[in-house]
Amino acid sequence: xxxxxxxxxxxxxxxxxxxxxxxxxxxxxxxxxxxxxxxxxxxxxxxxxxxxxxxxxxxxxxxxxxxxxxxxxxxxxxxxxxxxxxxxxxxxxxxxxxxxxxxxxxxxxxxxxx
Amino acid sequence: xxxxxxxxxxxxxxxxxxxxxxxxxxxxxxxxxxxxxxxxxxxxxxxxxxxxxxxxxxxxxxxxxxxxxxxxxxxxxxxxxxxxxxxxxxxxxxxxxxxxxxxxxxxxxxxxxxxx
Lengths: 114, 116
What we know:
Number of strands of chain A: 11
Shape of chain B: globular
Order of helices and strands of chain A: EEEEEEEEEEE
Oligomer: heterodimer
Low-confidence stretches of chain A: none
Strand content of chain B: over 45%
Radius of gyration of chain B: 14 Å
Low-confidence stretches of chain B: none
Number of helices of chain B: 0
Number of strands of chain B: 12
Structural class of chain A: mainly beta
């Protein structure tokens, strides 16, 4: 069984540009989560999808961030326009059931905004 | 609000020795779950161990054990017989479950370095 995959592994963009991160959850996992870790701080929750619906997007920092999950499969997280403080590592996780005690994490996408 | 505190930014341990990584938590929920994840230099987050608040015994998974002290609100990770491959970042986390949310709250992490 393939794990959670994320693309790209690393992205370097200039301030003001747009970047789209992609996450492919484990097949059959309805629940998909986005987290991010900014420069030595704790990993913070961004949002949670159940299939294609946003269950909780309380952690999204502002309206420059847009997450989608078309058809309840892969998800994208777009940052437009990117700011310097958006630099960090963006993690995706998935779980089969809601409130499953284990979330499987992807390797993360390291975003650097210059 | 729920919070996880990891007060050790870095720890060193000699190979084959045991090491304890500290984690304290704050919650008003009677039911909660605590996790430890390992993040090696390759970047992926690896689930290590889980402790439920109502579990009667401390969780163990191979060389990992969780020293759960509910009254103190601590959930320390104990790694026995450290190996060089244990060198990594370790994150303590708590699940926050509400009617409309299910997410992990993380601490800032502890970087463990195992030396020969």
